[in-house]
Amino acid sequence: MTTLIPDPRPTAATATALSTVPSTDPPDLLDALESEALHIIREVVGELERPVMLFSGGKDSVVMLHLAEKALWPAPVPFPVLHVDTGHNFPEVLAFRDAAVEHYGVQLHVASVQDYLDDGRLRERADGTRNPLQTMPLLDAIEEHRFDAVFGGGRRDEDKARAKERIVSLRNSFGHWDPKNQRPELWHLYNTRRRPGEHVRVFPLSNWTELDVWRYIAREDIALPSLYYAHERAVVERDGMLLSPGDWVQLRDDEEPSVRTVRYRTVGDMSCTGAVASTARDVEAVIAEVAATTVTERGATRADDRLSEAAMEDRKKEGYF
């Protein structure tokens, strides 16, 4: 089992000592990003009644839950977490998700795409990927539990559609997003007003980059699923990506898998998430690798974003994150 996130909360003695010793170090970018994220989480928890946090066990959701515990300490995290389970998730990530939920003492809700396929509410796609099928289970879970705010780990550097969106983003009563109808966010003021049936999506990591996330993981000593670091794995190269063959990725007649040293920059649906060749076996090596890359993690490794030029925006308009 992967070692879980160290407890970020200071002891009483440490907190007292820190409060009496003035800091001579100027605040850096990570301090500013953390401060903004903590403020966003506190504002939403203070203004809305039934928030929830999307939590898959991936790096962004792990950082977000870490920030939530920091923002609300010494009180426990007062809201549940929600995972939309495609049924094609990496086993290592699901194991980490369950252990993290137990560690933080939060309630986990799971919206299962497989349940929707079994009863006919959804049908398998011809390309085999299930990521685009997450929207209906997500919206149904929001309606069932009457969630009025949904925290997500989306960042503006990931995709141009996510770059358009506000930190607090209104969804109508159908869960849809209108990119032409967004509220201004001036002076760190966030408008969470909504009418009955509407909800807001909240993105505390909006202004972070992939490099910021990794630098914060290093600074806070945050543990992650092991596949974020270089390891040997059987992969097959397809459409410019390294996919892991198995139940969800069937080999074609002209394909032959090979064992390579790879890691994952993002951990979505196994059927559409590729690995990258890498020798980065620890967080510092990953930081150096990310600093040198010119392609975002979704652009490099997510086939579901390649379905069309506006694939992400089309899904977001329908209710996806």
What does this structure look like?
The strands form 2 sheets. The protein has a 6-stranded mixed sheet with strand order 3-2-1-4-6-5, with helices on both faces. Helix 2 (29-47) crosses helix 3 (59-72) and helix 8 (210-220) packs antiparallel against helix 9. A hairpin with a 2-residue loop joins strand 7 (231-238) and strand 8 (241-243). It folds into 2 domains: 29-210 and 312-317, HUPs (Rossmann fold); 212-305, no CATH class. With 321 residues, it is of the alpha/beta class. Mean pLDDT is 85; it is low at 8-24. The chain has 11 helices and 10 strands.
Secondary-structure blueprint:
Blueprint: H1 12-20, H2 29-47, E1 51-54, H3 59-72, E2 81-85, H4 91-104, E3 108-112, H5 113-118, H6 135-145, E4 149-151, H7 160-164, E5 168-171, E6 199-202, H8 210-220, E7 231-238, E8 241-243, E9 258-263, E10 276-277, H9 283-292, H10 297-301, H11 311-318
Helix pairs in contact: 2-3, 8-9
